[in-house]
Amino acid sequence: MKFRILAAAAALSIIGAGFVAAADEPQVVRQEMMKKVGGAMGALSGIAKGEKPYDADVVKASLTTMSEVAKAFPDQFPAGSETGHDTEAKAAIWEQMDDFKAKSAKLGEAADAVLASLPADQAAVGAALGAIGPNCGGCHEVYRVKK
User: Fold this and answer.
1) How many CA atoms lie within 13 Å of 139's alpha carbon, on the beta-carbon side?
2) Residue-wise DSSP of 57-108
3) Residue 100 in contact with residue 82, Cβ under 8 Å?
């Protein structure tokens, strides 16, 4: 009985160690970063569409997330991370890294500009999305595999 418990504990610790190692891989990190941006965009879209009430704290947090991720995101594409973990990254990222970095910086700049004059109501959040959204789409069109 004790052997089974020890064997199960050992197996779980090995599985857990593998998960921790995978969590540090660039593919996993960048997927998590994009989930954060997706959540931020969803929150802002909900406010802009009137599905959620305007909340300055949510707007500020969402824009801050977008800004921070945009600035750190290109660093998550080291050589050799082109495959694995069901990546949606196209090879064009590594082939055109300067353009990819410029597009990401442009998203960060757009988020920072909106953050500097925080939208004060639903209409202003909608206008802000109009300024930010094309930066997301412009990068996705060129550098993301459509699924």
Assistant:
1) 23
2) HHHHHHHHHHHHHHHHGGGG--TT-SSSTT--B-THHHHTHHHHHHHHHHHH
3) no
Cα 27 from Cα 48, distance rounded (Å): 31
- Which phi and psi angles does 49 have, rounded to 5°? -85, -5
In contact, 105 and 72? CB cutoff 8 Å: no
Query: What's the confidence (pLDDT) of residue 24?
Result: 77
Q: Token match 């959204």: residue?
A: 133
3-state helix, strand, coil in the chain (%, to 5): 75, 0, 20
The amino acid that residue 83 corresponds to is: T
Whole-model pTM: value is 0.81
- Cα separation, 102 vs 86, in Å, equals 25
- Cβ contact 11:34 at 8 Å: no
The three-state secondary structure class of 90 is coil
